[in-house]
Write a structure and sequence with these properties.
single chain, OB fold (Dihydrolipoamide Acetyltransferase, E2P), five-stranded mixed beta sheet, 3 helices, 10 strands, about 10% helix
């Protein structure tokens, strides 16, 4: 789902599964989410890009696990806790986004979506579909397609 396409429709709402990575709140478009899991055992994949933590078996399907902290240039978790996995489908494949925690499903008005600020870290801006200003915090919308495009399949605008 491309949230940019719906920005001009003021009477529509979008839903997001909220996740926390580090101290930042992110929103994953609910239509992209296939499952939410507690941390799973992953098997390393030789010669994979650095953001690929490995693979896991989900009901007989191989799922590529993406370490979101590595993708966003954040340090590893200090508490060593297991975190959570948000399974998304893109490019006809399943991917598991490794996050610190999963929150609630939020319904937000599309007309409240703003472009990512120029001051946002370029690596974060590249995978952002925009931001929502919430009470005292920003929700950064993850553009799942661009996030998972470490193979260069998608041209960024």
């Amino acid at each position: 789902m491309d949230v940019h396409q719906d920005v001009t429709t003021s009477d529509a709402d979008d839903q997001f599964v909220t996740v926390t990575i580090g101290s930042q709140l992110f929103g994953v478009p609910v239509l992209s989410v296939r499952d939410v899991l507690v941390a799973q055992k992953t098997t390393p994949i030789p010669l994979a890009p650095p953001e690929v933590a490995g693979a896991l078996n989900l009901r007989g399907r191989i799922v590529t696990a993406i370490d979101m902290r590595r993708s966003l240039d954040l340090p590893a978790r200090k508490d060593g806790g297991p975190g959570m996995y948000v399974v998304v489908e893109e490019f006809d494949e399943l991917y598991s986004l490794m996050v610190d925690s999963v929150g609630e499903v939020m319904t937000l008005p599309v007309d409240a979506l703003e472009r990512s600020p120029g001051t946002l870290d370029p690596r974060w801006r590249d995978i952002s579909g925009g931001i929502f200003r919430l009470d005292g915090t920003l929700l950064v919308v993850l553009d799942v397609e661009r996030l998972l495009d470490f193979m260069g399949r998608v041209e960024t605008p």
